[in-house]
Amino acid sequence: MSNFRSNYRYTMFLILLLDILAILVFYPAKSHAELPKSDVSTAEAEVNKAPEAIVNQTLETSMIEAGDKGSGEVASPPAFCALSCVLPSSSIPPLTSKKATNPERVTPVSQLLEVAPPTNKKATNNSAGQVTSVSQLSDVLPTDWAFQALQSLVERYGVIAGYTDDTFKGNRALTRYEFAAGLNAALERLNELIATSTADLVKREDLDAIKKLQEQFSPELAQFRGRLDNLETRTAKLEANQFTTTTKLIGRAQIVLGSVLAGNNVVTKRPAPRNATLQGSTTLRLNTSFNGKDSLSLSLSGGNIESLGQTRAGLLGTFEGRTADNSSITFARNTILLGGVRYRFLPNPDTQVNIYALSDGASEIGLSGPINPYFESSSATGANGISRFSRRSLVYNYGDSGPGIAILQKLGKQVQVGIAYSAPNGGNPTANNGLFTGRYLALAQIIYYSSNRNFRVAATYVNTYSPANTQGLSGTNFGPAVGSNLVNSTVPGAGTVANLYGLQAFYQVNSKLAINGWISYGAHRYLGRGDGSAMDWAVGLAFPDLFSEGALGGILVGMEPKLTRLSQSVNLGAGAGQADKDTSLHVEAFYQYKIGDNIEVTPGLIWITAPDSDASNPDSLFAWVRTVFRF
């Protein structure tokens, strides 16, 4: 289909220019008067277009659209080719034009530099001089279908220029500005050739061929002119309306089938029930933009999904293997909750500010997404991996739902820095709670991307504090809410502070294989009592388009957070100075199969060795099948 569009593009443009040339030669009295007048008015309309709405997009995408599309400036067209620029019918904008918002594009800030670099507003500086031989264009080969046509246009008429990197970019999408620039350059050159009429530059047989083509394709040319005139009318209507506040509703429903297949409850030491369950949940997200450069996101959710490894009171008696799909343990099941309120805006094209009254800590603001995209996905689309551990390292998991602020900043094209402050109990005015006197998480992160975007590495630091005897929405006072029971434990009556350090990396080997991994370290301080240390690590493999286009396979092996050291003066329930004595491994595999664009089924298995970091506990195994419907 891409070849068809490309062929159509060059054919239509050649036909149009042949038509123009015939008019200039055979009907000189009419000259340019019969050219579609919509070129000027449409270009003027494009200059005055309203900025495109930025709704839950990546920082890179938001910056591109706000800086290059929403500023009202017109990018100068690159002087790349005067006779290869055509405006195909498929590229004529629909009625919504560029002013229509795109709130359904909910993507984590993870993909900050994944999209194409912003358009250079001084694109004319990238243009090369006049091409005198088609061999100067490195991406035009003699085997290309348009090679002879380009060779003729270069050597006989001299109306082609290239980019500074000696490329022609014949398959690149064409903008209206580039079409106008190419058409103007072609007309000037044709007028010059016809005016001089000295050398045999325009042969009689060529003019005969032009006339014949004009007659053969006159219906298509008439239709093309009509489409341009219609576009002018519709664009004028959009200009009159300008940008209006728009709200987009995005829905996500899921049904999960789960069951413990093997394992004991680590607290009672008795076999866990092997009962299969069928549960579900629904999330509705409302995305609103007020000026085209901001986004207000509201989330409503409810369900009855019980995680198989969510709390010590769960089936397995541990946080290990906690699934990513689960309802809040602090609210009744099947209750509709306001799960997120966030406002995002861009004070400048390189900066994004998120203010949220309620969200899921670092996960909601997207700082964890870029390092593990195939397992985590976005907050709107849900995790791809089965477990919460497979999504991210412990440095992000100490956060909890609550208000806060996050600022993301681009430093050039390959570096992003982010800072965030979140208070899990910031909406609670009672003692030892609130925005600044209660539990908090302060995060700083820097991410480096390779120039070809197939590699990224991030360094993250988190400082967190929990007052004594408080509890967040995850059901814990402190800790990552995954991993062993000891790493999630605190000393009764004592506050807890932690400094967390994480190093994470992702490498896209090719279109069918990606590797990610991380290692994290946590330094706990039980105020007035002593210290402890925590660690986790993981390595994952992702297989995009496995067995089927759009499918995704994933395998992850790692060590969930465990307490590796504890002061002799501290007792967290296992004895004074007693840390986790063994190493528990988390092994996970899933396969996500897409049924169309809006339905996907993801079966998976989670295998935990030495549960609760205790080799005396038999391995646990449970299955999870998630079906997601998007609307």
From TrEMBL:
Q: Which Pfam families match?
A: OprB (PF04966), SLH (PF00395)
GO terms for molecular function, please? porin activity
Superkingdom assignment: Bacteria
| SLH domain residues | 133-197
Q: Which GO terms describe its biological process?
A: carbohydrate transport
An example of a Gene Ontology cellular component annotation for this protein is: membrane
Annotated InterPro entries: Carb-sel_porin_OprB, Cell_Envelope_Struct_Comp, OprB_sf, Por_som-like, SLH_dom
Q: Which family does it belong to?
A: Belongs to the OprB family.
Name the NCBIfam families for this protein. por_somb
Q: What is this protein called?
A: S-layer domain protein
Which species is this record about? Nostoc punctiforme (strain ATCC 29133 / PCC 73102)
